[in-house]
Inverse folding.
């Protein structure tokens, strides 16, 4: 390692490398890293008992670099709770909720193209 790099603070050096990595891959946003831990990290989490879209929090993490965490009391929405393994069964009609909805009954989030594809998850 040359002297210039040795004198740079590690955080600045890491950020510089990260920006070069994103530029080389033509990424507009940072990819997400996910890990499991028993220790509660500093960051944003949904409030217990309040439904809040986990996808919106993941989007915030991606756009703003925020740390977001979920656990069995803080998972946001039933769909997120189910897909993260905190709930045993999905909400009724989840395949329609994630895709096109049911006219007159529920709006679809359109995360997945069709109910059939959603069922395969």
């Amino acid at each position: 390692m040359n002297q210039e790099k040795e004198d740079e603070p590690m955080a600045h050096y890491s950020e510089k490398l990260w920006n070069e990595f994103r530029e080389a891959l033509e990424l507009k946003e940072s990819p997400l890293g996910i890990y499991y831990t028993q220790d509660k990290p500093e960051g944003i989490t949904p409030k217990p008992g309040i439904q809040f879209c986990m996808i919106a929090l993941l989007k915030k993490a991606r756009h703003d670099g925020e740390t977001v965490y979920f656990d069995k009391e803080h998972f946001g929405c039933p769909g997120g709770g189910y897909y993260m393994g905190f709930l045993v069964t999905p909400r009724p009609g989840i395949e329609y909720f994630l895709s096109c909805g049911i006219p007159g009954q529920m709006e679809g989030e359109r995360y997945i193209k069709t109910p059939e594809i959603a069922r395969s998850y």
Q: What stands out?
A: The helical segments are 3-7, 10-24, 54-64, 78-83, 94-98, 115-119. Residues 7 and 13 are 10 Å apart (CA to CA). The chain has a mean pLDDT of 85. The chain has six helices and no strands.
